[in-house]
Input
Amino acid sequence: MMNEDPLALLPEIILALAAVAGLLLGSYLPRRRQWPVRLLTALACIGALVATVTVWSDAPRTVFGTTYAIDVATNAGRAIVLVAVLLTLGVLTGEFRSSPRESELYVLVLLAALGTIVLTGANDLLLLVAGYLLASIPLYAIAGFAKDDLGTEGALKFYLLGALLGITMLAGATVLFGVGGASAYAEIAKPLEAAPAAAVAVGFVGVLAGLLFKMGAVPAHFWVPDVTEGTRPPAAAFLTTVPKIGAVIAAYRLVASTMDDTAVDWPLLLAIIAAATMTLGNLAAFFQQDVRRLLGYSTISQVGYLLMAVTVATRSSLALPGMLLYLAAYALTNLGAFAVVCAFPRLKTIEDYRGLLRHKPWLAISLAVCLLGLVGTPPTAVFAGKLTVFTAALDGGYAWLVVVAAVNTVASLFYYLRWIVGALRSASTETAPELDRWSETTAYVTAAASVVVGPLAGLLLALFRGDLALM
Output
């Protein structure tokens, strides 16, 4: 029984229809007046968000057989992605407003968001690979959208690594299909328990490789700093935020649904990857002068913390709600930090931000809030998410990983403070930097929301509690 229910996919359908409508509408609008497509994108995200909220309290279930799950992880992923896209529009507008290809950019954003949401609900290996492709191909175009040298170089590196690990992911899915006899998670869970451990390990690592690329984790992280530095700052904000949401949730669903009773010691593998990711990201960020490259390595380290929740997916009841809370907090805070960068398109290094407090005090405060938030300073949202994830890892028996994460958290304060202290020092010039008002407003909204969401973390954790739709 296929239990076909298209209305269960209403948020995804809205995004798909908006992408098609945006492409058609953009082809008829004047080249320098394509703002209606931007409005259409915002309305589509709001409509999809409303559709998500209306089914939030429904019981977990699967549709179209067991290929797509509708549960708390999917709904939370939908909501986080949609809010992140709305915030991204705030930083994209100033950079690409009146661009002759503006409508194309918004269509690419909608398609990438749709692919990311598909990843969050994918309950089948084939759908997981399809979601990976849909969430990847538009991003390659976004990375090189400006058609400049650095952006083109970053997009090429992004594409080549994505193609390699995409093939690796497909090969891994093929191996799991071969030993499991099916592609649906619900159908391969039992066969994998009796399958040869070596074959299961090879298949799992292959599929995981693609997801590690999407989230920017070691050893598939090489694209992150180059793309973040080379592409336009608003595009970097989107690329370092939204894809990670789908990849982390997809990895959680994969291990929780199929790998729990196998002979493969996947928790230890993920714990090692998490430790390596957070450590490498922090160490590489220490002496970066380019603020975009610094934020690129910062996003790598954040993925390491998020992978702690995936490591204990089957060992702690706090793992899923903690991971979802952390994802929401990270998306909000990371977009806030990038919004400040987008507000000053001509400032590239930490030294360029010297004296920001004097020229734009509220933006300097917003920057400090977001950067300290990424560290996990109370009462910001990331603090609540990080604390919950650390607790889940401790509850799951990975005390050593919590110690590594705590040391990394303290160490990360160094490079964030280098930027903050420079922004709060005396100005090196009397001339105020050029300012983008759309990004400025987005920075204020995200910084304020980061502080407000922190004390409300208990309510969000209650919303994020629930079971995965395994059957």
